[in-house]
Amino acid sequence: MAEPAAAAEPHSGHAAVPGARIRYSDTGGSEVPIVLQLSTPNTYTKLGRITAPLLIVAGGADLTAPPELMRTWARHAPPHDFAVVPDAGHSLSYERPAEFNRIVLEFLSGR
């Protein structure tokens, strides 16, 4: 397995998860930063064009789109609500449905 890049340029659409590392057995057990592709080069521009109310919900234990990276993504969005569901992973609506539904319903009701 190829080792992910140690860092990526911000415009590349890749971001290293701050402090997050993964250990690969086929690299002699060395740890490398987790690098994720969360956007294409023009995602931030597209986010800035959203005119509808926006809710961004992150799972506190999401390794695919961690809260730190979702906050970075959200900084490029228009005014929005942001919530983190603690101890939920990437499938937070399945893992913590009651809390997820409460957050969404509060957003939709304008609270």
Automatic annotation (TrEMBL):
<dbReference type="InterPro" id="IPR029058">
    <property type="entry name" value="AB_hydrolase_fold"/>
</dbReference>
<protein>
    <recommendedName>
        <fullName>AB hydrolase-1 domain-containing protein</fullName>
    </recommendedName>
</protein>
<feature type="compositionally biased region" description="Low complexity">
    <location>
        <begin position="1"/>
        <end position="16"/>
    </location>
</feature>
<dbReference type="Pfam" id="PF12697">
    <property type="entry name" value="Abhydrolase_6"/>
</dbReference>
<dbReference type="InterPro" id="IPR000073">
    <property type="entry name" value="AB_hydrolase_1"/>
</dbReference>
<feature type="domain" description="AB hydrolase-1">
    <location>
        <begin position="38"/>
        <end position="102"/>
    </location>
</feature>
<feature type="region of interest" description="Disordered">
    <location>
        <begin position="1"/>
        <end position="20"/>
    </location>
</feature>
